[in-house]
Amino acid sequence: MSEPRVENASTTNGLPVAPSLGPALALTHAPARSTLVDGRVAYICLLSVILAVFAALIAKGLTCLIGLITNLAFFGTWSTALHAPAGNHLGWWVVVIPVTGGIIVGFMARYGSVGIRGHGIPEAMEQVLTNRSRIPARLTFLKPLSAAIAIGTGGPFGAEGPIIATGGALGSLIGQLLSTTPQERKTLLAAGAAAGMSATFGSPVSAVLLAIELLLFEFRPRSFIPVALASTVAAAARFGLGMPFPVFVLPAFRQPSQSAILIYLLLGAIVGVAAVGVTRAVYWIEDMFEHTPIHWMWWPAMGAVAVGVIGYFYPRTLGVGYENISDVLSAHLSRVSLSLAATLCIWKFISWSIALGSGTSGGTLAPLFTIGGALGFVLGAGAIHWFPQCGVEVSVAALVGMAAMFAGASRALLASAVFAFETTLQPLGLLPLLGGCTTAYFVSCLLMRNTLMTEKIVRRGVWVPTEYEADLFGQIRVADVASRNPAVLHADEAVEAVRARLAGHEAAWAHHGFPVVNENGFLIGVLTRRDLADPTLIGPEPVQQLLRRPPVVVYEDLSLREAADHMIKHDVGRLAVIARENPGKLVGMITRSDLLTAQRRRLDEMKMEKSMRGLAASRGNGGK
Fold first, then answer.
1. Range of the domain at 75
2. CA–CA separation, 406 vs 420, rounded Å?
3. What is the chain's mean pLDDT, rounded?
4. Shortest CA distance to 560 belongs to which of 480, 470, 474?
């Protein structure tokens, strides 16, 4: 904040007083207007860019490690190429491989870190909300290693979840090593997570949206600028590492008709119901494991038995399964059509939900995309069968189902729709995607309180923000609520006279703070009721002798949020309000009670909204 220069200032009780400005602003405590970004944000941006490069390398390395373990376990070959386990010829021995992986993961969880259990995003959310974004350093290598073992031995998971979790853990680690604030550490965690997703799928925009919707719990420039830079750099690094783009190559879509859009909306709603069922099933299975008398270390191996048995009868359920998504989206299953898609949807869901419920390590995005895409394929084929002139395309229906499943299960609405576009580069699919994801999101909100990402941590007593809105205190100016006519004391008044004057006016005594002005009407300090009631004072002293420090003031054009922060910073319950154009002149006073009173606007709006809902419900019931 630039301060006006004060010349020829006199002093009052040791406090400089300028003839034209009152107290010298250099000695008053006035908050500067907050800025959107500053040099510190540039520093975090630099760290985020460096972090993005490492996240891209981690994505590439983990993918190669999964390929290596898969090839060794199912084919006995030394190769890092990502091959589907479905082509194995092991027979019933295929059951042993996932169980072996489950045993190893269980031992790693018990003797390494219990934090490797699960798919990573809920755990990252919990650290953001409860632990100031501090993730233990050992998870930076234990999480990807355990995930590579679980997926490489046939676990029905995607690699993206562990990569996202590892990127977030690396960002948190950097933040801890470099002594950052909790807010900066959260930004680095989100930047690492977004970079991990962007490097995996080449989807930088949806990665940023996912970070905002699931990790940042805010939308501020100082947060999303570093995240966006990290996501961009990670996507660029992906291209440099020779990974394909787009991930899912599809034939060009046709312009959807109005009837097709309506069907895609309905399809999204149906998939939203399925997403609710999928979420509840996963946590029901998890509850079943919680009630078993066997130590949790063995649960991943128990779940892997189901993975292996299902994998024997339907090998497509084993491993990452990105090829399943490609086949569904490109309608390669159309000739054997509904049976293959429906079978893939059912068995992938059963295998994945049991494995995830057992507490092993793996991701949720690819399985949800597979289940949703296959379900969308079936529903789209059914719509074409029953309404041949509707203009529905099976590939578009599968794409909408894929994105709507994730939108309904995670409530990351924008990230889901944009992800499906970025990974296919089909602009004519954007409208069906937005509609289908929105109806899925709507149905999910109606039928389910928590989500696949939040249910676990909510059960632990963690409150997860679900609605982001502009800060009410940030929208109201100090001038709108400040008291304009406070009880003012004059610097040369005797203490005993002030006591007598206030004793005769009970309303004035109700205040806890009284601004003190000099003979020119300029503010020189603030006294509290406790200061004036001090029994050690005889009474003839002028009140200016009681001033111990410059006044803590606030400009009338600042927001209530800035005023509240200023009160906390200086540990005071009231602020003198001044104007920028005449900073020595008292405008009014603002207290903590005034801040609470400002909440009345929000309460009045909520009351009005509740009344309107009640009126609508009454009309819907025929006025009964």
1. 39-240
2. 10
3. 85
4. 474
Number of CB atoms found within 10 A of residue 46's CB: 12
H/E element, 553? strand 553-555
pLDDT band at 25 (very low <50, low <70, confident <90, very high): very low
Residue with the larger pLDDT of the pair 550 and 107 = 107
Find the DSSP H helices in 291-393. Answer: 299-313, 322-329, 337-357, 365-386
Please count the structural domains in the chain.
Answer: 3
CB atoms within 10 A of CB 70: 28
Among 271, 274, 350, residue whose Cα is nearest residue 310? 350
Contacts of 29 (CB under 8 A, 6+ apart): 550, 551, 552, 553, 566, 570
**pLDDT tens profile 405-415:** 999 999 999 99
Nearest to 168 by CA among 135, 122, 206, 208: 135
pLDDT per residue as tens digits for the range 242-295: 776 678 888 888 999 999 999 999 999 999 999 999 999 999 999 999 999 999
**In whole angstroms, how far apart are CA 222 and each of 58, 128, 227, 323, 504?**
26, 17, 9, 38, 52
DSSP state of 91: G
Residue 22 in tokens: 């009152």
| Shared domain check, 427 and 477 | no
CA–CA distance, 490 with 586 (Å, rounded to integer)? 12
Burial profile 272-303: b = 16 or more Cβ within 10 angstroms, e = fewer: bbbbbebbebbbebbeebeeeeeebbbbbbbb
pTM: predicted TM-score of the whole model, two decimal places: 0.84
d(CA 256, CA 392) in angstroms, rounded, equals 7
| 396 vs 331: CA distance, rounded Å | 10
Shared domain check, 374 and 437? yes
